[in-house]
What does this fold into?
Amino acid sequence: MSCITAAQAGATAPVTMAGFLAQSLAETLASLVMANVISPGFPMVFSNRPLVIDLHSGAFAGGGGETTLLNAASAQLSNRLGLPSGVECYMTDAKAIDAQYGVEKEMTSVAAALAGGNLIYESSGMTAALLGVSFEAFILDDEIHAMTYRTMRGVKVSEENLGFDAICAAILGDGHFLGADHTYKAMERDYHYPKLAGREQPRTWAENGALDAWDHAKTKARGYWTAITLNTLMLIKMPKLELHLRSSDRLIDDIAN
It folds into this structure.
């Protein structure tokens, strides 16, 4: 269970970063104390979840630099106290799956992860400052999570990873590392290979339909939805279902109607 406070800077907490963090920390500690009074030793996640409003409009702002900073600082404060931390990040104010969406989600995600956040709320699928949700967003967010996890793994320093022998072999041999055993051993272990992000040459990309990340996510989401729909129909054994003549798109439309 989470011990949650969700103050909003400039509304229910001071607008200054330090003042906000002080009040939010005190409120979360107070709620944790009350939970332990009622049930001593009850396991809780210390969810000091900073929120921000746009002071020009009063609207909740899920993305942005202040949200990034406050949630990272919140995770560090919780860790300093030796408590499992839950933070509110990986949000976006974008209404569409666009550049704003990617920037805000990755920025808040990486900052909270590198600050040591143990549990990240609102981490997948959410859009429009938590007012919207998207199937395609779930697919894209999974890709972003994978990149964040790779960043968290950091750089492992060892005699093998420093690659002294590989460097010597390249200098005295072929002059590159492309076919080296050192390269083959590390390429799957140390590198993340995205499932949606395109890395092909521009000409190849154009010849293959010039599909962007949204196109790939939409295709994957429809495929998952089709599989879930078919499995559900098989479980409930709907009568007279002519699956063998219908395409997946037609099937979904028929069910929706």
Notes: The first helix runs from residue 17 to 38.
